[in-house]
Amino acid sequence: MCGNEYTNILIQEMQLKIDSFDDTVFEWIPYNRFNDIKELETDKDDFVKVFSAVWMDGPLLYCKNECEYKRSCQNKKVTLKCLYNSQNIINEVKAYSIKKDDFLIYEIYEIYGLSQIPDTEIYILVLQCVCCERCEERYTNAYNESCRWCKPCQINDLKNNFMNWTSGNENIDNLIQEMQLTIDTSSDEIFEWIPYSQFNNIKEISKNSNSATIYSALWKDGPLHWDENQYRRYQNKEVALKYLCGSQNFTNEFLNEV
User: Fold this and answer.
1) pLDDT, tens digit, for every residue of 80-114?
2) Domains and CATH numbers, the chain
3) Distance of alpha carbon 186 from alpha carbon 181, whole angstroms
4) Which of 206, 203, 204, 181 is CA-nearest to residue 192?
5) How far is 66 from 49, CA to CA, in rounded Å?
6) Alpha-carbon span 64 to 174, nearest angstrom
């Protein structure tokens, strides 16, 4: 325990709130169990500083096969939130959650426990990692650990990949690049140049007087979707192909169709 009766009671109350095996076990975490501590940001009133750190032991996780709690996620990346006004610890703790559904449904950050800097006696909230390991910017959606997404990093990755594909038409390449850079969330579609050879089982399904013919087809590679912290392709995706007669010339009409 921490040596402070008031804080110990708070920790005990938080621990007794668990009612599911996947609830977080709130703990007192000695400060010396953190390493690689880096300051990330300070709020405007200077009452709060936020750091990234590695929690050497990691949280307690329930092992259903062995019916006991184990620390099976060591060297866990976490966020440390310093509380310079420690009189409000209870309200600060209650702003976060130990319930898994709260992270996913209500977008509330997960809290692992409390700690304290020995030299200054400043209390620290130990929270789930909210900043990208690559650029240290905040994740766009940090609440779900399996689907974290960093907009600045993904934009940079798309830019770095521009040289690896081309439609053969500079204007179309520019259009595709512009469309790619409009992504704002992990659920946004990645607009791509797709070689025609990627389609099979092509069948005409409709034709209208506007010189547009619609086909069904299977896209062999399939679109990019963000899943488990990376983009994956869902292969053999059924799609519709809209053939635009006269679109060989890059016109405003063609742009409007896109």
Assistant:
1) 998 887 667 888 888 887 776 655 554 567 889 99
2) 5-131 (3.30.200.20), 151-257 (no CATH)
3) 13
4) 181
5) 39
6) 52
